[in-house]
Design a protein that fits this description.
InterPro entries: Bacteriocin_Proc_Enz, Nitroreductase, Nitroreductase-like, SagB-type_dehydrogenase. The chain folds into two domains: 274 residues, NADH Oxidase, CATH 3.40.109; 180 residues, NADH Oxidase. Helices cover 29% and strands 20% of the residues. It is built from 16 helices and 21 strands.
C-alpha cells in the first residue's frame, strides 16, 4: 500500500519528528486544570472480577492458562509496581512499563472464553464489559484464522489522558506506549511459555464496537492473541470488511466516569491522523522489510564473545525504572560487553504482522557510548544479522548527541545512549497513513527490550523525545532522511530522587 506523499500521516511525521518546536507548541505543563483526567479509567455499574493476589515472584512456564497464570500475566504485564509520594498529584503510580509523565493513556482489554474485560490495574481485577467468546471474531478482524488462542489482548489509546499535557503530540506518545506495553506483554508471555502474535493490522470498526470504544477518543491500536508455546501458529488469510464484521456485533455503551478533555475538538491534528489510519478491508493488509541504512564501511569492533548472565524477568521488571524526575547520571563502572550482548539479541524472537515471517523487529539499534567498560567511546550501529558493533562516529559522539537535545538533560557520567532508527518510507509505502502508528509501536516494543536489558545491569533507562532528529541523524552518520531516530534512550545509573517511592507487592504464591 502506498500512501499519498502529503497525506496526514506524512505531514504529522514531519511536524513531530523534524520540527520539534512545532510539535511542542500546544504542549502545556500545568497540573490541576479543569481538564485533568483521572489517574485510571473507571467504569460504573459493571460486574467486577477480582484477580488473585497470589502470584509467583519468578516467571516460569505455566502448565495451564488458569486463574493464577492470568493474574501473573496482567500483574507483570501492566500492573502497578511502585507508588510515589510527595508528587503534588503529578505522577504517583508507576507500572511495569514506562509512560510519559506516568499518564498511562494506553488501556488493556482482555478477551477470554467467558467474555470481554477491561484490566483495572488500580484494583488488579477485570471489569466485565460483554458476554460471549469473541476470540475467533478478533482473529477475523486481523484478517486471519487458525487455532483458537488462550486469550486475546487488545491495547487502546485513551488519548485524553496523554493529551492533557501534550495535546496533538499525544498521538506519537500513545503509539509509542502501546508498543512499550506490547513489548512487555510479549516478554512476560514468553517467560510463561506462551506466544504473543502482534497485529498492527486489523479492521478497526468491529474491534472498537466490540469493546464499546469511541474511535476518536479511544481507538484500539494493537491486537495480541496469546497461544501456548507448542500451538500451531499457522494462520489462514481471511478476507472481510469492517462493515460486514461490525454488523454481527451488538453495540454496547458501558458507563464510564468522564474526565479530561474532549479530544476531537481539542486536538485536530491528532484526530486527523488517527482517522486517516483506520482500515476497512483486510485485503489491503501488507508486509515488507524496511531498507537498512547504508553501510558505514568500517570493520566491526573486535569484542570477545559474551554470554550475559541469566536473569529472572520478574525481578528485572520490579527493578526497572526511568530514573528520578531530574535524570542525573552517577559515574559507575558498567560492563559494556555484557550490555552489547544483551542489545544484540533484542531484535529477535518477535512475531509481528508488520514484517514477513521470521524477519527481525524493523528498526536499527545505534549505541552511543559515553562510559562503558570494554567498549571505547563513540557511536556504533548494531549489525541486524550478527549483532556486531560497527563504528559510525568517533569519541566525541556523545557530545554531538548532547548538542542535539534540548537543554536540561545532564550527559556528564552517561554510560550510553541508544537510538532506534526507523525507515519512514517503508512505514508509509507499506501501510499508508497507518504507517505512523505501526512504526512507532514497533519502536516502542524494541525500546522496552532495551530498557529491560539495561535494568538487568542496574541501569535506569530514560526515554527522551526532546531531540532534533536532523542533528541526531548527522551525529549517527545517517545520510538519507528516510532513516529517522524514533526513540532516544538514556542509560545510566542514577542517584536517588527527592520523593519517597514504595514498591507495590502482591502476595507470593507458596
Amino acid at each position: 500500500m502506498t500512501g499519498p506523499e502529503d497525506g496526514p500521516g506524512r505531514a504529522f511525521w514531519r511536524t513531530t519528528l523534524e520540527d520539534l518546536a512545532a510539535a511542542m507548541e500546544t504542549r502545556q505543563s500545568e497540573y490541576g486544570n479543569p481538564d485533568e483526567p483521572l489517574k485510571f479509567k473507571i467504569y460504573r455499574g459493571r460486574p467486577r472480577r477480582p484477580l488473585t493476589g497470589r502470584v509467583p515472584r519468578t516467571l516460569t512456564a505455566v502448565e495451564a492458562f488458569d486463574e493464577v497464570a492470568l493474574s501473573t500475566l496482567l500483574h507483570y504485564g501492566y500492573g502497578i509496581s511502585r507508588q510515589e509520594f510527595d508528587t503534588n498529584g503529578t505522577w504517583p503510580y508507576h507500572r511495569m512499563v514506562a509512560s510519559a509523565r506516568c499518564l498511562f493513556g494506553v488501556q488493556l482489554y482482555v478477551c477470554l472464553a467467558d467474555g470481554v474485560h477491561h484490566y483495572d490495574a488500580a484494583h488488579h481485577g477485570l471489569v466485565h464489559l460483554r458476554d460471549g467468546d469473541h476470540r475467533a471474531l478478533l482473529a477475523r478482524a486481523t484478517g486471519s484464522a487458525g487455532a483458537l488462542p488462550e486469550a486475546v489482548l487488545v491495547l487502546s489509546a485513551m488519548f485524553s489522558k496523554t493529551a492533557y499535557i501534550y495535546r496533538d503530540y499525544a498521538y506519537r506518545l500513545c503509539t509509542q506506549e502501546a508498543g512499550l506495553l506490547a513489548g512487555n506483554l510479549d516478554l512476560v508471555a514468553r517467560s510463561m511459555g506462551l506466544r504473543a502474535l502482534l497485529h498492527h493490522q486489523f479492521v478497526d470498526e468491529p474491534v472498537n464496537r466490540l469493546l464499546g470504544l469511541d474511535s476518536d477518543e479511544e481507538p484500539a491500536l494493537l491486537v495480541l492473541p496469546l497461544h501456548p508455546a507448542g500451538a500451531d501458529l499457522r494462520r489462514e488469510p481471511v478476507a472481510t470488511t469492517a462493515a460486514a464484521l461490525a454488523s454481527t456485533i451488538d453495540p454496547i455503551d458501558p458507563p464510564v466516569v468522564r474526565s479530561g478533555l474532549q479530544v476531537a475538538p481539542a486536538c485536530p491534528r491528532l484526530t486527523e491522523v488517527n482517522r486517516a489510519s483506520l482500515r476497512t478491508d483486510t485485503t489491503a493488509f501488507a508486509t515488507a522489510e524496511p531498507a537498512a541504512p547504508g553501510g558505514s564501511g568500517t570493520e566491526p569492533l573486535p569484542l570477545p564473545a559474551a554470554e550475559p548472565p541469566a536473569v529472572d524477568l520478574a525481578q528485572v521488571l520490579r527493578a526497572r525504572d526511568s530514573g528520578p524526575g531530574v535524570f542525573r547520571p552517577v559515574a559507575s563502572r558498567v560492563d559494556g560487553t555484557e550490555l552489547w550482548a544483551r542489545l544484540a539479541r533484542a531484535r529477535t524472537g518477535v512475531t509481528s504482522d508488520a514484517v514477513p515471517a521470521g524477519a527481525p523487529v524493523p528498526l536499527e539499534i545505534f549505541l552511543t557510548v559515553g562510559d562503558l567498560a570494554g567498549v571505547p567511546p563513540g557511536a556504533y550501529r548494531l549489525d541486524r544479522y550478527t549483532g556486531a558493533l560497527h563504528p559510525v562516529a568517533g569519541a566525541d559522539a556523545i557530545s554531538a548527541i548532547e548538542r542535539a537535545c534540548l537543554p536540561g538533560t545532564v550527559f556528564r557520567g552517561m554510560n550510553a545512549v541508544v537510538h532506534l532508527v526507523g525507515d519512514r518510507d517503508w512505514a508509509f509505502d507499506t501501510f499508508g497513513d497507518r504507517g505512523y502508528r505501526v512504526i512507532h509501536q514497533e519502536a516502542g516494543l524494541l525500546a522496552h527490550r532495551v530498557c529491560v536489558a539495561a535494568a538487568a545491569q542496574g541501569l535506569s533507562g530514560r526515554i527522551v523525545n526532546a531531540y532534533h532528529a536532523g542533528a541526531v541523524r548527522t551525529a549517527l552518520g545517517l545520510t538519507d532522511r528516510r532513516h529517522t531516530p524514533l526513540f532516544q534512550i538514556l542509560l545510566a545509573r542514577t542517584g536517588p530522587g527527592g520523593h519517597v517511592i514504595v514498591p507495590v507487592e502482591l502476595e507470593e504464591v507458596g
